Amino acid sequence: MKRLSHKLQFFFEQQFKRFRQKREKGWSGLTLLIMKDDADEPIRLRINLYVVYFALLLVFLLPAASGGLALVRQLREEPADAKIEDRKRLLLNIPIILAERKSLLKEARGQVINFYEATDSGNERMFKDWLASLSNRPGEKVAPGAILGLNLDELRALHLDADQALAQGASHALRLFWHRISIYHLTPRGRPLLTGIGFISSGFGQRPDPFGNPTGEVHTGMDFAAAPNIPIIATAPGVVMQVSRTDRPGYGLFVRIHHGLGYSSLYAHCSSLLVDVGDRVQRGQQLALLGKTGRATGHHVHYEVRLGMDKPTDPMPYVMIK
Predict the structure, then answer these.
(1) Do β-strands 263-273 and 231-233 pair in parallel, antiparallel, or remain unpaired?
(2) What Rg, from alpha-carbon coordinates, does the chain have?
(3) Three-state SS for 1?
(4) Is the pLDDT assigned to residue 130 strictly greater than 60?
(5) Do the domain assignments include residue 265?
(6) Does the residue 253 lie in any domain?
(7) What is the pLDDT of residue 80?
(8) Is 113 among the domain residues?
(9) For the chain, how are helix, strand and coil distributed in percent, rounded to 5?
(10) Widest Cα–Cα separation across the chain
(11) Based on the structure, what is the number of domains in the chain?
């Protein structure tokens, strides 16, 4: 190790020595003596080598750079001959395009005349004259509204009514779409556990009493069994409206969330709580840890969904919504 450090030290000393020599040599410069005809002392001009190198670099680099830029510009520019040929081709195509437009106009005029004849109108001759004036005489033209007997003000009013009806229909459709999105966003959906964790240990409704009551009991939610201290997550965004941090005989430690539109959800038998009353939560946010506090025979989360002040509803339809 010491041998390697000595070699590195020697290498850096040599490099520093060479750098210092080059620097001293560069700053040494050149001395020019200007001799006069008389016997006076000559004039000494000391020029630094770095200044000389820089001047030579400018002398050779600037012409090379300008020549390279000129070459690149010349290569990028389209040759003048090619531009002239393109202009010629465009000019030659103009008569062809005009002939096509005249043919289409003649065909359209014939179709309009046929349509007007089919309407059994008495102004056929005037209508034909007006069509001829549009294409053959560039002078004064007869207004099409006067010939066809149309009420232009009525047409404008109908056009305005159609625009308003379309705008109102589009606005109504957008509001309906937004309301549906809002309802879907605020509705509790999915499982109160992370994907792939736990299973449904008890459903909603009448069931045998796990504590041995022969008459059974009405289960007001769904139970999801899993390992202790598994995170319990919110099934929709909302505000925490109630928490219980004491081990009550029924739900034990629980969290209740209000989601809006009358929806609320409850998560009971928790081992510990991670939120407080008034907290805003998002869907998928951790609320508590799974436990078996309260009236429970094993580790699980009791999940309820309510709509307004009604009794709890079966959470299964909400669990099935993704």
Answers:
(1) unpaired
(2) 46
(3) coil
(4) no
(5) yes
(6) yes
(7) 65
(8) yes
(9) 45, 20, 30
(10) 138
(11) 2
pLDDT of 231-269, one tens digit each?
A: 999 999 999 999 999 887 889 999 999 998 889 999 999
Judgement on whether residues 292 and 210 belong to the same structural domain of the protein: yes
211 neighbors 217 (Cβ within 8 angstroms):
no
Domain span at residue 127 reads 81-135
Q: Kindly list the distances between the CA atom of residue 87 and the CA atoms of 63, 81, 92, 246, 322, in Å, as whole numbers in the listed order.
A: 36, 10, 9, 89, 62
Q: 124-136 and 80-118 are packed helices; what angle lies between their axes, rounded to 10 degrees? A: 170
SS3 90: helix
The one-letter code for the residue type at 138 is P
Calculated CA dihedral for residues 162, 167, 169, 172, nearest 10 degrees: -160
> What is the token pair recorded at 12?
């850096």
Of the residues 90, 108, 135, which one is the last residue of a structural domain? 135
Contact partners, residue 34, CB within 8 Å, separation at least 6: 42, 43, 44, 45
The pLDDT value recorded for residue 208 is 85
Residue 279 near residue 258 (C-beta atoms within 8 A): no
CA distance 196 to 108: 68
Helices within 215-301 (DSSP H only): none
Write out pLDDT tens, residues 155-214: 566 667 667 767 777 777 778 778 888 888 889 999 999 988 999 999 998 888 877 777
